[in-house]
Every structure is written in structure tokens, then in C-alpha cells.
Amino acid sequence: MFGTTATTGTVKSGTGTARTTGNAGTGTTTAPPPNERVLEDLDSAALAYAARIAGLPPSGRQAARDDLVRFALPFAGRLARRYRGRGEPLEDLEQVARLGLVNAVDRYDPERGSFTAYAAITIVGEIKRHFRDRTWGVHVPRRLRDLILEVGQTTAALTSELSRAPTIAEVAGRLDTPQEEILAALESAAGYSPASLNAPVGGESSAEFGDLVGEWDNDLESVDDRVTVSGLLHRLPWRERRILAMRFYGNQTQAEIAARFGISQMHVSRLLSRALTWLRQAMLNEAPPPWHASPTDTDPHDLRVTTRRTGDHVVVELGGEIDRDNSHRLRQTVVEAVTTGRPAEVVVGLGDVPLLDATGIAALFAGQEAARSTGVRLRLTGAQPYVRHALNVAGLARLME
């Protein structure tokens, strides 16, 4: 088998035997009888290999090396089969054992003793290293891995002795180890081959294990806030409540909301800010603060009306934005000022009015008609540039000073 050098031996494989012959130098080795069951004569083959490559350059040793490796493959396979059933495919274990065999052949030194013993240690070490480094699904400290093996062996022994599964305390007592470490070892053992989240659940369902794993629902934390806000929204006036719904539930812009209500975008921004401020204060206090929605509201953006009479002159001072929600108050105030007591002149001060929409202009037209029918002079004073421009466009410029 090794060229001109011959050895004879008997190779045991399974339950049968195979004979090999070869020549080692000038000596001859006599093979055992064909029916004798013995291990492979790896030591003789290894000595023949060492003698064969003694005078060869490295490039010429490959054929002899391959012959010895092929001769020892059954031996490596039997060592690999000792570790089957531990979660690793047998084919992978055989590959690892063959790698260990190749390493043993490459490092073999006949002066250090038996090749069989050296190859067995090398192959088994390679298999154990594979289990240590390649098979664990998660990193587990070596101390725990060793303890896991001891727990498994002790559990099997106690099960045989007690005819039942042992308790944690019994295993800990046998190993003289705290129960906490036994529990940690049992829990860590599950990390050897964790189940894949993409594995199918089974049956005809297409669901995977990952679909059954729950996750943290952030919406649960906001349930209390949602319920509280829902109750507080009903305390707001209809307009503010509607604006909040359009902005945060309908996802409309402030410009779209302003066009819907016939007010300015700035006014929408102020109403949103005021409503949100009130909601924030109501959320942080046990009792929500009152919402000032009456005509006497002191909010600087709501309509403020002050009327004073001096002789036959009436002065109406206005403040705040005038839109469809409060224009009826302007109409009522100007018409009453013109028709009550028939004054000589009614002056409407617009100095503190930053916004006047179409409904506000219509209210002033109503006051102009009432003044014409009663013969009372009506004047508009102090209009800001935006309001003045709106009055000019509407045709009320002649009422302004």
C-alpha cells in the first residue's frame, strides 16, 4: 500500500476485517490471521510512512501522506460516531474528525510514541473544540458549559437510582453546588441550539415562531392619556374642538383650517396654542382650569367691546380679531349705538383690531345702513393697515378719517 515499502496488518471496520500488506525497509511484518478482530495497525502504518518520507523532499511526501490518511479514515469515523446524538449532524462530526486526523498525520513524530494514541487525542480534541466553539447558539461561559455536562450526567444517574426525575435540590446536593447555579446551567442549556424565529409553527398554517413572540406595545402607555384627553376635549368650545380635530386627526394645515372657518392662519395658530395650553394645564392638575368662553373673556385675541356715551356722541372701542364667530356682536353693538337715543355721531375705534374678515365687514355695512336710515353720522377710526386695506376694498373708505 505504501509503494515498495510493505507492511501487513488487519483493519477492523464495523464487524469485518481487511488485510493490508506493505514493506518497511528490509523487514517484513506478518499480519494476524484474517479472522482475528483487532484494531487497525496504525502504528505500523505510521512507522512505514515515516520511513518512506525520511529521504524525500516536501513536494514528494504528498502521496505517502494521502495513503496514511485514507488508511486511518475508519478509525477517525468511529471516534466521530461516539459523539452523535448531541445535536450535531454526523456528517459534520466526521468532517471535523478527518480534519483532526490530517493534523495528527502532519504533526506525527515517531520518536514521541504511538501514533494511534496521538491521533485519538488530536481527533477527540478537535471534536470537543467544535462543540465548544461552533455548536452553541449563544455565548455561554466555559464554567457553565462544564456544569451543564455534569448536571446532565448527574440527572441521568439519579433518575436511574430514584426511578424518577430528580429535583433541583437533589442534583445540587449530589454536585455540592448551589441551586442557583444548577438553575443557571439548566437555563443556559437552552442556548445550545435555540429555535429559529423563522421556523414554521406546523400544520397547514404559514405562521412562523417569530409571529407568536409578543413585543412591547407603546400605545398601551398612552391609553390613560388618550382617555383623559378625550374627556377634556368635550369641555372645550365647539370651534376649538373642531380645529384640534381637523389639525391632529384630519392632518389639515393651518391654512386649510383658516379657509374652512373664514379666519386668518395666524388666528388658527393662536386658537390652537390656547387650546393646547389649556389641555396641558388640565392634564397636569387634578381639577381642570375653567375655560373662558363668555363675551367678557379677557383673552387678548377675543373680541372686546367698550361703549361710552358723551352727550350726543357715542364711542365704540373694539379690540381683538373679528371673524364669523363674533361678528354678530359687532353688528349688534354698532346698530344699537346708532339707533338708541339717535346720537349725532357714532365713532367706531378699530385701533386694537388686527384682523377683520368678511363677516366683520358685513357687520359694519349693517351699521352703515342703520346710520343712513336714522340720519346718524358713522365714522371708523384708527384702522391698522391690514384692516384699512380690507375696508378700502369693501368700499367703506369714506367712513374712515
UniProtKB/TrEMBL annotation:
Segments forming domain STAS: 303-401
Pfam families named among the record's database cross-references: Sigma70_r2, Sigma70_r3, Sigma70_r4, STAS
PROSITE patterns reported in the protein's UniProt record: STAS (PS50801)
Gene3D superfamilies: 1.20.120.1810, STAS domain, Winged helix-like DNA-binding domain superfamily/Winged helix DNA-binding domain
Keyword presence, Transcription regulation: yes
DNA-binding found in the keyword field: yes
InterPro entries: Anti-sigma_ant, RNA_pol_sigma-70_dom, RNA_pol_sigma-B/F/G, RNA_pol_sigma70, RNA_pol_sigma70_r2, RNA_pol_sigma70_r3, RNA_pol_sigma70_r4, RNA_pol_sigma_r2
Comp. bias intervals (Low complexity): 1-30
CDD domains: Sigma70_r4, STAS_anti-anti-sigma_factors
Keywords: DNA-binding, Sigma factor, Transcription, Transcription regulation
Segments of this protein annotated with the region Disordered: 1-36
NCBIfam families: ant_ant_sig, SigBFG, sigma70-ECF
Family statement drawn from the similarity comment of this UniProt entry: Belongs to the anti-sigma-factor antagonist family.
Protein name: Anti-sigma factor antagonist
Species for this entry: Polymorphospora lycopeni
